[in-house]
Amino acid sequence: MTQNPFDPALFRPDAIPPETLACAENLRKQTLNRPPLGSPPPEGGAAPVFPRPPASPRARTLRIDAPGGRQVELRIVAPDNPRGA
Prior knowledge:
This protein is of the alpha+beta class. It has one domain. Helix content is about 15%, strand content about 15%. It has one helix and two strands; from the N terminus they run αββ. It has one helix spanning about 20-30, and strands at about 60-65, 70-75. A two-stranded antiparallel sheet has the order 1-2. A hairpin with a 5-residue loop joins strand 1 and strand 2. The radius of gyration is 20 Å and the shape is flat.
């Protein structure tokens, strides 16, 4: 029988290898003070790593609440002829 890939024991903090925790913490620190996605670079700085995608005339933008009291922009592009859920 195969082990359940969603076994809760696999998600305990002590189940995460120290190398993975160190890598995740390093990434968190590097991205902590980055400007928002698609924002213009600072004077003399490099272009953003992920530029803002072109806006679709069919898209609409919603602002939704996120953890920590923040708001996140969510772009929705609905199909012309939706069918089903």
